[in-house]
């Protein structure tokens, strides 16, 4: 399954573009784990290491990490860099469902 396949579905997909060396990315990780428990099957949450996936990072014009993007049916619905709370991300996913 390609990245394009994953983001083209009917349900929202939250993509966390991160790097192993990024301190804020490490702070975002447990928040995403909590979020996964909250949204369950209503959304897909994936993490993409920009160092291991430079083409996807380049295609998405990722300039800094962490960058979070919500896709639905292949379209970017929301995009922002930085750390976000589970509450805020849950609200954004619901708004874009």
Largest sheet strand order: 2-1-3-4
Provide the CATH architecture. 3-Layer(aba) Sandwich
Looking at CATH, the homologous superfamily is Glutaredoxin
State the distance separating the first and last CA atoms: 22 Å
Outline, from the CA principal axes? globular
Strand fraction band?
25-35%
List the helices and strands and how they pair.
Elements: H1 3-7, E1 13-18, H2 23-39, E2 44-49, H3 54-59, E3 67-72, E4 75-81, H4 86-95
Parallel strand pairs: 1-2
Antiparallel strand pairs: 1-3, 3-4
Helix pairs in contact: 2-4
3D structure, described in words:
The chain contains 4 helices and 4 strands. The chain is α+β, with helices and mostly antiparallel strands and 97 residues long. It has one domain (3-95): Glutaredoxin. Helix 2 (23-39) packs across helix 4 (86-95). The chain is globular, with a radius of gyration of 12 Å.
Summarize the structure.
By secondary structure, this protein is α+β, with helices and mostly antiparallel strands. The chain has a single domain (3-95), classed as Glutaredoxin, CATH 3.40.30. It has 4 helices and 4 strands, in the order H-E-H-E-H-E-E-H.
Features:
39% helix; 26% strand; single chain; 4-stranded mixed sheet; 97 residues; alpha+beta; globular; 4 helices; Glutaredoxin
């Amino acid at each position: 399954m390609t990245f394009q396949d994953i983001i083209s579905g009917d349900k929202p997909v939250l993509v966390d573009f991160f790097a192993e060396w990024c301190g804020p990315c490490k702070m975002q990780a447990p928040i995403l784990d909590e979020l996964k428990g909250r949204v369950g099957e209503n959304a897909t949450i994936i993490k993409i290491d920009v160092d291991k996936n430079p083409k996807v990072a380049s295609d998405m014009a990722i300039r800094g990490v962490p960058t979070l993007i919500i896709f639905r049916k292949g379209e970017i619905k929301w995009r922002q860099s930085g750390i976000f709370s589970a509450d805020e991300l849950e609200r954004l996913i619901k708004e874009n469902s």
